[in-house]
Write a structure and sequence with these properties.
single chain, 207 residues, alpha/beta, C8orf32 fold, 5-stranded mixed sheet, two-stranded parallel ribbon
């Protein structure tokens, strides 16, 4: 099990309200999103409990497209929920939508990772979230990509445990900015490449 070293996260906006707003991609007011958010958090006793429940549901109940060898590419939060799968970026859209519906500030973070250890000079962008916890007044990155052998991301409100702790000696990068909206290059890629194979061939390589 690998534990990521913390980095100094930099919010794109100083206003937490900017991390709660719905959008066409993070469609947190969609009826299916709203219903699920309320159902999942009905018995949660604190915002931290809400985050943990919602994060683990998206991580475990929504498959990563590649893990199940699905062909369709999803993008908006409601599409991911309806289809039951998504790439890392799309799962991050769903997690953000559910948490934003609960009023919890949630943003978007990215990493540059080696695409395949057999090709250590080939990189790809990876998407995840950052969530603001009022107690203990800090941002926490969460990766809902989905666990599998060799990948073990967990919720821990004291320290982050990501799916892919970076390896600087291989040129991997943690981008520190917490964005209010998904990266436009990522959204365009998801919306213009309809199959998983096509998307993989055209994934953004870096920010």
């Amino acid at each position: 099990m690998s534990i990521a070293l913390p980095i100094a996260l930099i919010p794109e906006s100083a206003s937490l309200a900017d991390y709660r707003v719905p959008s066409a991609v993070v469609n947190s007011e969609h009826p299916a999103i709203a219903t699920l958010a309320r159902s999942l958090t009905a018995e949660a006793t604190s915002p931290v409990a809400q985050v943990k429940i919602v994060y683990e549901w998206v991580r475990d109940r929504i498959a990563h497209t590649c893990d199940i060898q699905a062909e369709l590419v999803t993008c908006t939060a409601s599409e991911v929920l309806a289809q039951g799968h998504g790439f890392c970026f799309a799962k991050a859209h769903l997690l953000a939508a559910l948490l934003r519906h609960c009023g919890i500030p949630t943003g978007f973070c990215y990493q540059r990772l080696v695409f395949d250890d057999a090709q250590p000079t080939r990189y790809t962008l990876h998407g995840l979230n950052a969530v603001y916890l009022s107690e203990p007044d800090r941002w926490l990155r969460l990766d809902a990509r989905g666990n599998k052998p060799g990948v073990q991301a967990e919720f821990n409100d004291h320290r982050e445990q990501l799916a892919f702790p970076i390896r600087p000696h291989l040129g991997e990068v943690d981008y520190p900015t917490i964005y209010t909206h998904p990266n436009p290059l990522v959204v365009t890629a998801l919306q213009t490449h309809p199959t998983a194979a096509d998307l993989i061939a055209h994934l953004p390589l870096a920010l």
